Amino acid sequence: QQKGNKFLISNNIKLAIKLNLDGVYIPSFNKDKKHLSYSVKKNFIILGSAHNIYEMRTKELQGVNAIFLSSMFKKNKNYLGINRFKSLSLLSNKPLIALGGISTNNLKKLNLTDCIGFAGISFFEQKKGP
């Protein structure tokens, strides 16, 4: 494992602990809290995703270190936009990571929010073609 890189697994805390990974990601649909009774190493990371205040509260009760909040720009069923994202960010003391439709064209708009970072798939995909 390279220094600085973290290895997290999605939605399986028991396996993350068993494999001595750096942490786990809990999707928005996972509402389980039994992991709170598990013994984890000191710097074990728990990240979760949310799309609304109810899911944010659930992630807080699950003891996450930070919340992926979406969708910032992608106009899907979970679309928030900047204003709703900012409003929701005021309702949590957890660090928020912006997710959804982030591109080089709208990246600077993230400075209008209190997010600590952003994540995305299409942002990091290599463009194909000439």
Tags for this entry?
19% strand, 130 residues, 18% helix, 6-stranded parallel β-sheet, alpha/beta
Q: Could you give a short account of the major beta sheet?
A: 6 strands, parallel
Helix content: 10-25%
Overall mean pLDDT:
89
Report the sheet-strand fraction. 15-25%
The SS-based structural class is alpha/beta
Query: Helix segment count?
Result: 3
Question: What's the β-strand tally?
Answer: 6
H/E series, N to C? Answer: EHEEHEHEE
Query: Order of strands side by side in the largest beta sheet?
Result: 1-2-3-4-5-6
User: In terms of per-residue confidence, which ranges show pLDDT below 50 for 5 or more consecutive residues?
Assistant: none
Give the overall silhouette: globular
**N- to C-terminal distance:** 35 Å
Overall radius of gyration: 16 Å
